[in-house]
Amino acid sequence: MGLFTRKKKDNAPENRPVPRHIAVIMDGNGRWAKKRGLPRKAGHKVGAETFRTIATYCKDIGVQYFTVYAFSTENWKRPQDEVDALMNLFRSYLKEAAETMFERGVAVRVLGDLTVLPEDIRAQIAEVDEIADRLGPDAATASLCINYGGRDEIKNAVRAIAQQVKAGELAPEDITEDTITANLYTAHMPDPDLIIRPSGEIRTSNFLLWQSAYSEYYFTDVLWPDFKTTDLDAAIDNFNNRNRRFGGV
Ligand code: IPE
Ligand code: IPE
Ligand code: MG
What we know:
By secondary structure, the protein is an alpha/beta fold. 41% of the residues lie in helices and 14% in strands. The chain contains seven helices and six strands. The protein has a six-stranded parallel beta sheet, sandwiched between helices. The N and C termini lie far apart (49 Å). The site of one 3-methylbut-3-enyl trihydrogen diphosphate has 10 residues, from α1. This is Isoprenyl transferase.
């Protein structure tokens, strides 16, 4: 170290303000594989590693919540061999990812309707939860949405609330927006500030419908397996230059 320490640039990644909650629609795995003459499942495998890299980076730069769309309620429509490949990927990946992310101080969570997943994967998700619990409630969190659908989530919330009304625990006039928020899979986290969709598609595909009311969207043509920390930096810089009005002036 010399006499003078270099003053860090204001826009250096470690000095920028960052969104509290970033969500990603992890898209483009299949096209990434096809471009290389590989089976689609090879793209999912590389995409799973991208999740680990970006989730760790989010923690390092101070993003408290990182949430990704990994398997939608509509993805069951895919050919059986691709669905099987994705389930096998979850099988070989979830607990191992939770353990490696634990070492880096990131709590991995799984969100969605897990009731219809194969029994062994559900058991693994229970272990993932236990590993995350050990980090305590303030840990940076990386959530994987599996068998997640925004409409399905809202339907399930409505059902849960209707049950409370039926049981006489809640009066219909006492149902507020917060009641609905509290019955979603994301009840314990703030709404996403920034939602990123790679791969060039410009739609939500049923992701975080309720929670995204005032999210900022960022679209890029980069395919998810190619997505780098510098792509996240670019999305954050773009986000930081926006004026969020939330309906005000
Ligand atoms: C996203 O990649 C991962 C899942 C939906 C499981 P895709 O599999 O949708 O990849 P593309 O869109 O076909 O390239
Ligand atoms: C959205 O991607 C779901 C996930 C990334 C898990 P899709 O590839 O399934 O979405 P569409 O079919 O292009 O809308
Ligand atoms: Mg896709």
